[in-house]
Amino acid sequence: MPPRPSPERSPGATDEASSHVRAALLAAQQALRHAGVGPVIVLLVGPETAARGETADLLNAWMDPRGIVTRAWGKPSDEERERPPFWRYWRTLPSRGQIGLFLSGWYGPPILERAGRTLGKGAFDRRMARIAALERALADDGAVLVKCWLHVDHRKQRTRLESLAADPLRRWRAGKPQKHRLSLHRRVVAAWKRAAAVTGTEQAPWHVIDAAHRNQRHLAVATRVLEGINQALAAPAAPAQPPPAGTRGSQVAVPDHLGALDLSLAVDRERSRTALERQQGRLYRAQYRARERGVSTVVVCEGWDAGGKGGAIRRATAALDARYYRVIPIAAPTDEELAHHYLWRFWRHLSRAGQIVIFDRSWYGRVLVERVEGFAKPHEWRRAYDEIRQFEEQLVEHGTVVVKFWLHVSRDEQLRRFREREATSYKRWKITDEDWRNRKKWDDYVAAVNEMVTRTSTRRAPWTLVEGNDKRYARLKVVRTLADRLKRAARR
Amino acid sequence: MPPRPSPERSPGATDEASSHVRAALLAAQQALRHAGVGPVIVLLVGPETAARGETADLLNAWMDPRGIVTRAWGKPSDEERERPPFWRYWRTLPSRGQIGLFLSGWYGPPILERAGRTLGKGAFDRRMARIAALERALADDGAVLVKCWLHVDHRKQRTRLESLAADPLRRWRAGKPQKHRLSLHRRVVAAWKRAAAVTGTEQAPWHVIDAAHRNQRHLAVATRVLEGINQALAAPAAPAQPPPAGTRGSQVAVPDHLGALDLSLAVDRERSRTALERQQGRLYRAQYRARERGVSTVVVCEGWDAGGKGGAIRRATAALDARYYRVIPIAAPTDEELAHHYLWRFWRHLSRAGQIVIFDRSWYGRVLVERVEGFAKPHEWRRAYDEIRQFEEQLVEHGTVVVKFWLHVSRDEQLRRFREREATSYKRWKITDEDWRNRKKWDDYVAAVNEMVTRTSTRRAPWTLVEGNDKRYARLKVVRTLADRLKRAARR
Q: Is residue B218 less than 8 Å (CB to CB) from chain A?
C-alpha cells in the first residue's frame, strides 16, 4: 500500500455530511462496546492499496482507535505457514464490542495468487467456499461482516500515478510497488468478481464503492460501517435460523454407538505391561518420524467423568519428548476467550509443524456439556456439527493428523470410581457435585455422544471409541491407536 | 527428553510419604488458584532429560493439570527468533494462581550453547545476568521461582543407558538423543555451576536434587514445589523492599526537562505542508530499507491528554505500508493481562522483524498514571524504572530501534483544546471527567514525567520531547525524528 495524505487533509472529511456520519459512527461505536456485541469486521478489498490504507486511517481518525483492530497481512511467518491458512486471521479476530479493519484480509492471498495465475480456477473456488463457511460461522456467532470492494478505474489510476511520478516531492508515492499493482489491476478485478460470485451471501454481502474520489469513498465506507455497527446492535443474539437441509442438522438416523461397545474387554496386568512398553516404543518412533516430516497431530480426548482420560494421556505422553507435545486441559474460558467465537480458544492452541497437541476436553464440549446443560441454544449446538467439521477439515487439508478418543465406561463402573476417588484423600478433589449432577443426566449425554459420533466421525478425522471399564485395556488402545495413526501419516 | 515410564508405575509414588505430600500439594494448588497469587514457576534443569520429563509427568499426575502450564522448548520459530530471546518465555508465562513447569526454561539454550562451546564465558555470564534480572522482576511481582537442578551421576547414567540398550523391549529409551546427552554430561554440569553462581539469588535460589533414584527425586521436587506454593500464599502482595543503592530508585537530581522546552516553536501552514510531505517521503524510504534489513522498530507515544498523540501517529502511519506497522492503543487491560506481570501485555505485542509497532500509551503508564493515581505502590513504580530499562535494553540488543516521544503542551493550551473538543460533536467523546481530574494533578504529572525522562532516557533508547503547542510543528518533529532514527538504523 503506497503512503497517503492523512484523511484530515481532505476538505471533504470536515464538510457537513461527514461530520454527521462521524458523530453517528462514534456514538454507535460506544454503544457497540457497551453492548459487547459483534464484532464488526470491515474488509477493505480493492485493486489499489492506497485507497485501503487511507480509508483505514480515516476510520481510525473518526472513531476511538482503542476499539479498533487494524490489520494488513504480508508474507506469512513460519508459525503461520505451519498451521492452516486461516490461523493467522483467527489469531487477530477482534472480540465482541470491537471493530476489525482488515485490509484485504482473507481475500488478499487468493486474489493475488489468482491474478498472478499461480492458483487455478478450481482451487480458487474451493478457497472461496472455505471463506464463505468461515464468514457464515462468524456471522452465525453474531459478527457483522462489512465487505467493501473499493473500485478504482484502471485508466484513472494510471493517470494518477503518472502525475505523482512527475512531481519530485510526491514521486515516492508512485514507486515500484504501486506500478506493479497497476500492472495486475485488471486481473485482480477479474479475480474479485469470481470471488464475489461465491462469497456474496445474504449474511455477508459485498458493497462496491467508487474509490476514485476520496471524500466520496470515505463517506460511503463510513456509512457502510455505521450500518454494520447498527446491525450488530440490532441483533445482539446469534440469529436463530432453521438449519437448512443438507449437512447442517439434517435428520439422520443416530445409531447407539456406545451401546455397541463390549465393555468386558480387558488385559491382564502382566501382558499389559510389556504390551504398553512395546506400543510406547512404536509411538516414540512414529512421532520421531512424524516430526522429521513436519506432520502435526491434534489429539482430542473426550469421555465420561472418571473415564480415565488423564491416565491414558499420561501413558501416551510418557513416550513423547516434552519439547514436541503439549497437553491443553480445557478449563473455564477466560474473558478474552468468551469474547470470541467458541472455536477461537482452540485455534489459538494449534501447534506448530511436527508437534502433537493433546486437548483434554475440546471443542466438542459445544455439542456435549453445552448441549445437555443448555449453555448453548439448540440452533447453536446444531450448527456446531458443521462448524466443527469445517474446522477439522482445515486441519486435515493442512496435513494435520486428527485423532479423537471417547473414553467410555459403564454407569456402574463410573459409580465405583467416584466412590473410590472419594475414599482417597488425594483424589477427592476430582469428584465434585457437578460430577454427580452430570451423572444424573447420563442418558442425555449418551444421546449427545451418539449424535456427535454420527455427525463428526469422518474418514480422515474418525472417532475412536475406547472400551474403558478396564483401565489397562483402555490405555493400551489409546497408545496403540495414536501410534498407528502417526505411523501411517509419517509414511505418507 | 527420552520417553519414560509413567510416574504411577513407580511404587514409591504410592507410599505413605508421597501420598501425604500429594494431598498437601493438591490442597495448596487449590488455595493458590483461589487466592490468585503467584504464579509459581518451577524450573526443572539437569543433564539428563528423562528425569525432567518424568518429574513433570508426576507433578501433572499429582495435581490438577488444569492449573499447570507445562512447557519445554525446542528450536525457536522465526517469530521467536525475530524477537528478543525472552519473548518465547514471556508468551508462555503462567498467570497468577497457576503453576508453570518449565523444562530447562531460559537456562536450556545458554547451558547447551556453553556446553557445545558455541558461547564464550563472557557472553554466557551476560546472559545469566539478564536471566537474574528477569527472575527478579518476576519475583518482585509476586511470582515464586522453584529452580531445581536434577543431578545425575555421569557413571550411573552411562550404566543405565547401557542396560536399556541391552533390552530389546526398552532399547528405544536409549537412542541417539540420549547418547548425545551423555557425551555432553560433564560440560553441562560445569555450565550449570557457572550459571548457578550468578543466578542463585536469595529471591530465587537453586535446589540441588539427587535425581538418581526416581522416588526420592519425585518426593524431593514435590516438596520443593509445595514449599514454593506456600511461599506464594504467604506473600500475596509483592514484597516491598527498599530499593538498593545504584540504578534502582537511587537519588539522582531530576532536572525540569519539560520546563526547558520552548513551546513557542511553530511552523506556518504552507511550509509545514511541503516539509511534512518531504519527511513522509524520507520515512517511507527509510522504513523500506529497514524492512529489507529486518530491522524492527518500537515507537512509544506518551503525552498529555489532548497533547496531539493521535494526530502525530496518523501523520507517521500515512507514510507507512499497513502490512508493516501496527498501532497498539493501550486501553484497560484484559483479565488475562491483569493476571500477569504488567510488562506481559507489551511483550505480547512486540512485532516481527522489519515491522514497526507504535504504542499509543505504553509501559510508561506504570511510572505516570499508575504512580500519580496511586494504582501502583511506591516500591512498584520505583523498581519499574529498572524493569523498563531492562526491557528496552533487550529490544535494543536485539537490534530493535526504540523511539520514545513525549508530546508536551502548556497547561493553557491543553485547556484550550479541551474546550474546543467539548464544542465539537465528534470530538466530545475524547474529553472525559477523568481528563479534567488528571488536569488537576498537572504538577504531579510534571514531576513524574521529569523523573521518567531522567531515569529512562538512555543513549540507545532516548526520549524525544516534542514541543506540541503548535500541532504542525509537533507532527513534523515526530515524523522527522522517526525518519532519522530509522535511516540511521537501516544504514548500520
A: no
Please give the Cα distance from B433 to B166 (Å, whole number).
77
Binary contact (B19, A426; C-beta < 8 A): yes
User: What is the maximum span of chain A, computed from C-alpha positions, in angstroms?
Assistant: 86
Which pTM was predicted?
0.85
User: Could you tell me if A1 lies within 8 Å of chain B, comparing CB atoms?
Assistant: yes
Res A278: pLDDT: 94
Q: Which residue of A has its CA nearest to B273?
A: A9
All 3 cell numbers of residue A262?
463390549
Nearest CA in chain A to B285: A172
Distance from CA of B21 to the nearest CA of A (A): 9
Q: Which of residues 136-155 of A touch B (CB under 8 A)?
A: none
Rounded to the nearest angstrom, the minimum Cα separation between A329 and chain B is 5
In which element (H, E) is residue A298 found?
strand A297-303
Cβ atoms within 10 Å, residue A118: 9
Per-residue pLDDT at A192 exceeds 60: yes
Give per-residue pLDDT as tens, A124-161.
999 999 999 999 999 999 999 999 999 988 888 888 88
pLDDT per position as a tens digit, A416-474: 999 998 888 777 777 888 888 889 999 999 999 999 999 999 999 999 999 999 999 99
- Kindly state the average pLDDT of the residues B218-241: 82
Instruction: Provide the edge-to-edge strand list for the sheet that holds A99-103.
Output: A68-72, A99-103, A40-45, A144-151, A206-210
CA atoms within 13 Å, Cβ hemisphere of A128: 21
8 Å CB contact between A73 and B342? no
- Which ipTM did the prediction report? 0.80
Mean pLDDT (chain B, rounded): 89
CB contact at 8 A, B299 and B484: no
